[in-house]
Amino acid sequence: MAVTLLVCTTCRAGEPVQDCGDVPGARLATALEALGAPEGVAIARVECLSACSQGCAVALSAPGRWSYVYGRMTEADAPDILAGAARYAAAPDGLVPWRDRPAIFRKQSLARIPPIGEPT
């Protein structure tokens, strides 16, 4: 099962809209792509994760696994985001033990969503 790291490329992180240049979300996506996705993880750019009040947002998901949405991310967080994505990819159900998560994933989680079709 392939893991997808979704990156909101329209996130402005509170910055005013400018006529030129990338918004913070697009810059985050570029930083992640420049470092390269861990094995088993695909980086996907998306237009909106509806976490607009939470700065730059990313999400991790895979079939049959718990999904997560994280906010308040910056380009500087790219290495930690990718480390967290690698740990998520290694967890068969998507549940990474708390202590094994990067600090930004422990402190900046916005949502945890159960696998589709799983009993609640």
Structure characterization notes:
This protein is of the alpha+beta class and 120 residues long. Strand 1 (3-8), helix 1 (24-35) and strand 2 form a beta-alpha-beta unit. It is built from three helices and five strands, in the order E-H-E-E-E-H-H-E.
- Distance from N terminus to C terminus (CA atoms, Å) equals 22 Å
SSE topology string: EHEEEHHE
The biggest sheet, with number of strands, parallel, antiparallel or mixed sense and barrel status, is: 5 strands, mixed
Q: Count all strands and give the number.
A: 5
Rg (CA only): 14 Å
Strand content: 25-35%
- Chain-averaged pLDDT: 91
- Helix percent band: 25-40%
Poorly predicted regions are none
Sum up the overall morphology in one term. Answer: globular
Secondary structure tally, helices: 3
Q: Kindly report the spatial arrangement of strands forming the biggest sheet.
A: 2-1-3-4-5
Structural class: alpha+beta
How are the secondary structure elements laid out?
Elements: E1 3-8, H1 24-35, E2 41-46, E3 56-61, E4 67-73, H2 78-90, H3 103-107, E5 109-113
Parallel strand pairs: 1-2
Antiparallel strand pairs: 1-3, 3-4, 4-5
Helix pairs in contact: 1-2
